Amino acid sequence: MPHKGQFTQGFALLTNGQTTIEDIRQALSDADFEIAREGPTSGNWQFGGDALLIPFRPEVNGYLLVDVVDQPWPDSMGGKDTESDAMTLGAWSMGFFGPFAYPGGLERARQHSWAWAEGRQAGLNHHGFIRLKMSYILGAGDKDVKVLPKEYDPLEELMFLSQVTLALFETPGVLCYFNPSGEVLRDAAGFRAAWEACRAQKKVPLPLWVNVRFFNLTESLFLMDTVGNGQLDLQDMEALFPKSSHDPGDVDFYLRNITHYLQKLRRGLKSGECWRTPLTRKLRPRTSRRLNRIAPTIDAATTAYRPAFSAATPMMSSGKLPNIAFSRPPTVSPV
Asked: Cβ–Cβ contacts within 10 Å for residue 167, how many?
């Protein structure tokens, strides 16, 4: 299973397959990012295409590796018995597609693209991707370096990756942003609007990194969970709630605000801990273990659901927004 190891964070931008390393170098240079060095493809695209290395925290060997691949995102992560898929499976297991990427992540990101309705069709015709991977051990050799250095700060990493992503949106051929660890899709305008609104209010842009998934559990129960909290070294959470008494938008807002609060405290959720909901009753969040293994099985008609962030509305804490139309939550398949 992927986890923080050789790579501690991972973003992607889906492309039309025509983007070159020269295009990327130009976009980064225009945004005043330093390029430490350039490296050739590894020979197997799963492990790396043509690449650039950007200093992040060079004093602890912290670098961002940016590479470009002219292959579609391998959403199955090597689920078939071919030589190519075996290579993909090996690369996935070592975190080369992101430390918390899972098979089917792009498809789930489409189905749960609440803040960008067009995201349900995003990347269907993409032919390549730019990959951003953070590491503290690249090229270390025999040096005494740590996978997670002293004073490691995942928030600082995510903010830096987001700044690089903003620059890379100017690269020819880029279609959209995809966070495989948080199963988030955004176009350039939506990403930039969310980033700027959060900066203006001095808030953490969680919706750019962490998504919520929304399921029909039974005829009377909804289930909502977060995906991507692991990027911040926090547990994902889930909430079960009656359809008749809780608005999904309130639960979304509630789960994201708990993440926001725990990130500030730098701790996880404690067993048995109770939190007051946006409504008048109590809801007990729990850490999510089961839903990471579940892929939605149906697409949906529409239902009203307030997402935690819209490109048009600044957020408070993690943000609560006006009603817009979204896909009805998929039904959870058997484990």
From this structure: 16
Are 160 and 64 in contact, with CB atoms under 8 Å apart?
Answer: yes
Model confidence, pTM:
0.83
Same domain, 218 and 309: yes
Nearest residue to 198 (alpha-carbon basis) of 167, 158, 237: 158
The reply to whether 36 and 130 lie within a common domain is yes
Q: Are residues 85 and 227 in the same domain?
A: no
> How do residues 88-136 score in pLDDT, each as one tens digit?
999 999 999 999 999 999 999 999 998 899 999 988 889 999 999 999 9
Using alpha carbons only, give the angle 309, 92, 108 rounded to the nearest 5 degrees: 35
How far apart, in whole angstroms, are the C-alpha atoms of residue 318 and residue 110? Answer: 21
Q: Where do the DSSP E strands lie in the chain?
A: 9-15, 37-39, 50-57, 62-69, 128-135, 174-179, 184-186, 211-216, 221-227, 237-242, 275-276, 282-283, 286-287, 302-305, 324-327
User: Could you tell me the two tokens for 39?
Assistant: 């490296």
Residue pLDDT, tens place only, 171-194:
999 999 999 999 999 999 999 999
